[in-house]
Amino acid sequence: MTAKSKLALALAAACFAAASASAQTVKLGVVLPFTGVGAEFGQQVDRGMQMFMKLNPTAFGPYKVEMVKRDSKNPSGAEAKTAVQELIAQDKVDILAGFIYSPDAIASAPLVTEARRPMVVMNAGTAWITNLSPMIARVSFSMWHSGFAMGEAAAKIIRAKTAVVGYTDFPPGKDSLDAFKRGFEANGGKVIDAIPMGGPGQVPDFTPFFQRAKDRKPDVFFVFVPAGDHAVSVVKTYGALGMRQAGIKLIGPGDITQDIKLQSMGDDAVGLITIHHYNADLDNAANRRLVAAWKQEYGASATPDFMGVQGYDGMAAIAHVVTTLKGRVDAEGAMQALKGWKYDASPRGPIMIDPVTRDIVMNEYLSELVKVNGRLVQKNIGILNAVKDMCKELKEGRCK
Amino acid sequence: MNPQALPAVRELALRHRLQWWEALPWVAGIAAFFLFPNYLAFGTQVLITILFALSLDLVLGYAGIVTLGHAAFFGAGAYTVGMLAAHLGWTEPLSGLLAAALVAGAIGLVSGWVVLRTQGLTLLMLTLCTMALLEQAANMFSGWTGGFDGMPGLSFQPILGLFKFDVLFFRTQYLYALAVLFACFVLVRVLVYSPFGRSLTGIRENLLRMHAVGAPVRARQVLAYAISAALAGVAGAAFVQATGYVNLAVLGLERATGVLIILILGGYGRLYGAFAGAIVYMVLEHTLSKAYPTAWQLGLGLTLMLVALYARNGILGLGEALRRRWSAR
Amino acid sequence: MDLISILLGGLASGMVLFIVSVGLSVTMGLMGFVNLAHGGFAMLGGYAIVLGMRHWGLPFPAALALGFAAVAALSVVLERALYARLYRAAELDQVLFTIGLVFVMIALVTLAVGPESQRVVLPAWLDGQTDLGFIRYRTYSLALIACGTLLMLALWLGFERTRIGARIRAAVDNRRMAESVGVDVGRLFTLTFALGSGLAAAGGGLGAEILGLDPQYPLRYLAYFLIVVAVGGLGRVTGVFFAALLIGVLDFVLKVEFPKGGTMFIYALTLIFLLARPQGLFGKRGT
C-alpha cells in the first residue's frame, strides 16, 4: 500500500468515525430483493423487521433507527455489492442487514471487511458465509441446521432404513443433501439415490424426478427445494403420484412447508414430516403475539414464516447492539456485542449467536402436518435443543 | 462535376472524421469521477455495460445480426478471468483481459460459424440456446465455476503493478473500466469505418447484392461475430476484476435481454447509442429503485414504451429527428 | 419405469406450452410482430382467474371463461391504441415496446396484488388420481391433455374449414397478396391477437398448477414460449401443437433418465432441431 492511499484510507476512516460518533440516530442499510424472483421473500423479511419495531417500541431505548432500503434485484451478487458500496460510502450507514440470497452476502463480504461495518445476515443460508468476514453475524440458518437434524431424526424417530434425496441443483440443495446424508448414515440409514431436480430459476415439473424416486421404493423421500412455489409443487406432485399409498414418507427441511404457502397445499400435505427452526404454529407467547399482530396488520390470510421471524430476530440483534453501545455503533463493539448474544423472546424460542462462529444456535422443531378444523397445522412431535451449524462443527469442505 | 461536391459522397468520405463532440463522453466520464466520488461502484457498472452494449452494436447495428445470447460471451470472459484467478492464481489483470478476449472470441468464432447460417427468429433462438447451454454447463461443473454461489473473494494484482484495486470506493476500478472502454471504442470505431465495416453494413442493407458482388458474406459475418464476442468477453472480464466476484448471473437471459434493450433504447448502428442507452437506462433504474424499491419497474417500463412509440431508433434516433427538424426550418 | 406414465406426464406439460404459445405463433406469423409481452397476457389471465375464484367464488370453468374474456378485451384495447402504431416500425422497436410493457405489467401486478405467488385452488373433481383401467394417473394432467387436444382440434377446424381461417392462412403465407385480393389484414390481426391473448390467459390459469403464477411469470417462461414457436414454425397451429408435445415429452423423458443434466436438454434439443430445419420442424420453407 502506498503512503498516499494509506492517507486516503485513514481520512476516510476518520470521516466515518466522525459521522457515526456524532449521531444518536443509527443508520441501518437494508439490502433485500424487493423485485424479481425473490420479491416475496424480501417482503417477508421486511415485514418481520417492521413487526419487531411495532411490537417492541422501546427496544432501541432513546436511540432512533433510520432504515435505508435498497433493492438487490436478481441474485447476481453484483447488484447487492453496488448497493452496499453506496450505502457505506454515500449514505454512511452504521450497520447492514438483509441479504436473502447467498451470492449477495458472499459478494458483499470483502466490502464490509474493508469498511469495518457489521453485517447482520437475515436469510442467506450457504454454510460458510460467516467464515468470509469477521464482520458477519447470521440470525437465520445454514442448510446444515435442518439437514443434519433431519438425518438424525429420520433414522432415530421415523426409523427409516433407506432414503432417496431429491434436491434443487444449487448450493443450498447440495448442502442439504450432504447434511442429511451425514446425519442419516451416521445413524445407520442408507441414501440409495440422490436426484438433482433442475436449477432454482424456475419451478420445474417435478413429476419425472418423483417418478424416479418412487421407482426406487425408499422408506423416506427427503426433498430440498427453495421455499416458495417449488414447495407447493413438491407436495402436489407427491400426492398426485400416489407416493404415500406406495408407502414412501415425504420428509424435508421446513422450507417445503413454508407457512405462507401451507394452506394452498391441500390434503396432499397431511402426514408430511419436516424439521425447521420456526413455523407459525409454534406454541409460545412471543409467537402467538407475533402471529396475531401480523394478521391484524397484513390481513387474515397473511402469516409470518421463518423468513419473517429472521427479520424480526435480526432487528432484535441490532437493537441489542445499539443499546449496548449507547447509540454509537463501532465495528469492534458491535461484533463483541453480537458474539454470545442470547435472546429468549424470539418467536422461535431461545436463540444465541455462537461466539466462535458468529452463526446462530437455535432449536429445531420436528413437526407433522395434520388437519384441524379444515386447516393445515404443523403439530410438534419433537425438539432438538440448541442446534449449531454442523457444517462448521464437523469442519466440512469450505466450512473449515 | 466534381464528385467530391456531391453531398452523399462527402457524407460518406467524411463520416469517419472525428467531430468535436466526440470528446464529450470522455470528458464527462472523467468529470463524473470527481463529481460523484461515492458512486463509483455504480459508475464502473455503467462503463462496463457501455462496453458490453458497444460489442453488441458491432453485430446488431453494423452486421445486422440480431442475437439474444450475447451474455454467453460476457460470461465466457467473466469465467475465464475468474477461473484463472481461482484455480491457477493468474491474477494479472491485463493479461486476464487478453485471455478472456481469446476464449470468448474462440467461442464466438465456433458458435458463429454454426448458427450464422440462419436468420430471424431461428437465429434468435439458436443464440439463446447456445447461451443457455453454457449457463447449464457452468451450473453442472460448479466445482470449477462456483455455480450459483459463485467464487468468493477474487482479488487481482495491481494494474501494471502500480494501481491497486480499491475495495471500498472503486476509484481504480472506475478509471480502469474507462480506459478499457476507451481502447475498445477506438478499435470498434476504426473497424466500422474500415472497408471491413463498410462491407458489414452492406450485408445488413442488401444481402443479395453483397453475394452478387462476390463479397465473402458468411466469413465476414462470422468474423464480426467473433470480434464482437471477444469484446463482450473483455467486458465480462473487466466486470469480474472490478467486482471481485462471479456467479451464474453473468450468463443469464436477463443480462442478454438487458443489454439488447439498452442498445435499442440508445439507438443501434450509431456507436454512441451504447453510451446513451446504458447511461439513461441504468441511471433511471438506479434512481427509481432507490426512491421506490418495490415499484421502479413501472417507471422504467413506461419510459421504454414511450421511447419505442415516439422515437424511431432510440434516443439517438430521436436526437437526429429533432436536429433534422431544426435544420429544416 | 413404465412408458405410459412418462408419456402422459410429458404430454401434459406439452399441452400447457401449446395453449399458452399458440396465439404467439399465429400473431407473429401474421404480422411479423415480435410480441414479447405475450407471457404477460398469460399472467394477467392467471391472476384474473385466481382472483375471480377467490373474491367472487366463481367455479373454475367460469373463472377460466372470465380470464379469457377479460384479457381478450384488454388486448384489443392495447392493440388498437398502442400496438397498431408500431406495425411499420423496426422489429427491434417492437422488442423495446413489448419489454417495456412487460415491466409495466409486472410492476402493476406487484403493486395491486403483491409479490407473492398465487395458487389456483382446483375443484375436487380435478384433484387426485384417476383410474384409466390400465394405469392410475394424476387427474389434472389427464384433464390438461384432453383440454389441449380439444383446443387443437377446434383451432384446426377453425383454420382449415372456415372463411376467416382461410384468410388468416392466406395472410400468413403471403400478406401482400392477401391484401391485394381484399383481405383486411389489420382487422384479422386484431381478431387473432384477441384470440391468442385470450388463449394465453386461459393457459396461464390452466398451467398455474404446473408452471406456478407470480409477477415474474412473463419473463421466466419467455424462452420456453419462443422455443415452441420457433420449433413449430411461425403461424402454424398444428406445428406449434406437435412442437410443444415433442419438447414436452422429450424434455420429460430425458429428465427422468438423466437428472444430472437438469434443464439442459430443452436447449440442446432446440439447437439440434433448428440447425436441422431452420424454418421450424413444421414450418414451410421461406416463411
What does this structure look like?
The complex is a heterotrimer of chains A (400), B (329) and C (287). Chain A has 400 residues and is an alpha/beta fold. Chain A contains 13 helices and 14 strands. Chain A has helices spanning 3-22, 39-55, 78-89, 102-115, 143-156, 171-185, 207-216, 229-240, 259-262, 285-298, 306-324, 331-338, 390-393, and strands at 25-32, 64-71, 95-98, 119-121, 136-138, 162-167, 190-196, 220-224, 249-253, 273-276, 342-343, 351-353, 360-372, 375-387. In chain A, the strands form two sheets. In chain A, strands 6, 7, 8, 9, 10, 11, 12, 13 and 14 form a nine-stranded mixed β-sheet that branches. A five-stranded parallel β-sheet of chain A has the order 2-1-3-4-5, with helices on both faces. In chain A, β9 (249-253), α9 and β10 (273-276) form a beta-alpha-beta unit. Chain A starts with a helix and ends in a 7-residue tail after the last helix. Chain B has 329 residues and is mainly alpha-helical. Chain B has helices at residues 7-14, 24-35, 40-62, 71-88, 93-115, 120-140, 142-145, 171-192, 195-205, 207-212, 217-243, 253-266, 273-291, 296-310, 314-328. Chain B is globular, with a radius of gyration of 20 Å. Chain C has 287 residues and is mainly α. The radius of gyration of chain C is 19 Å and the shape is globular. Helix content of chain C is 72%, strand content 2%. Chain C contains twelve helices and two strands. A two-stranded antiparallel ribbon of chain C has the order 1-2. The longest helix of chain C is centred in the N-terminal third of the chain and has 29 residues, at 3-31. Chains in contact: A-B, A-C, B-C. The interface between B and C is large, with 46 and 48 residues.
